[in-house]
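REQUEST FORM: STRUCTURE PREDICTION
Request ID: SP-0412
Submitted by: Lab K.M.
Chain count: 1
Length (residues): 111
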Amino acid sequence: MIQWPCLLKLEGDDELIYLASEPHFFMESRDLIWSDDDVVVDSVGACFTLCASSSDSSPDAVALQKCNQTVSLEEVTQLIQAHEFCLAEMCLTKIQFPSIFAAITSLSFER
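STATUS: Completed
RESULT:
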């Protein structure tokens, strides 16, 4: 089961999208042009791929499917450092977190 909040990492883009909850994911994905290489990382480091939803009548509906990949706190921190580098607002060496949950939650303050 997915542990919210999560982050969405789009293929080929260092900017991350903070996802507070499942409804927020559906709202963000409504107009998203997604790829098979996009990944959602939850608060414990579990990874989910985006796929077409079979339960919705809308042809553009997106669902999350758990994959075998997990990420470490170090990997999530590196993703956030790359994200912050794109924004050019923070010293990258100061970006450290005690947990994956804390790392992902830090993105909520950008909204």
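NOTES: The chain has one domain: 6-110.
Reviewed by: T.R.
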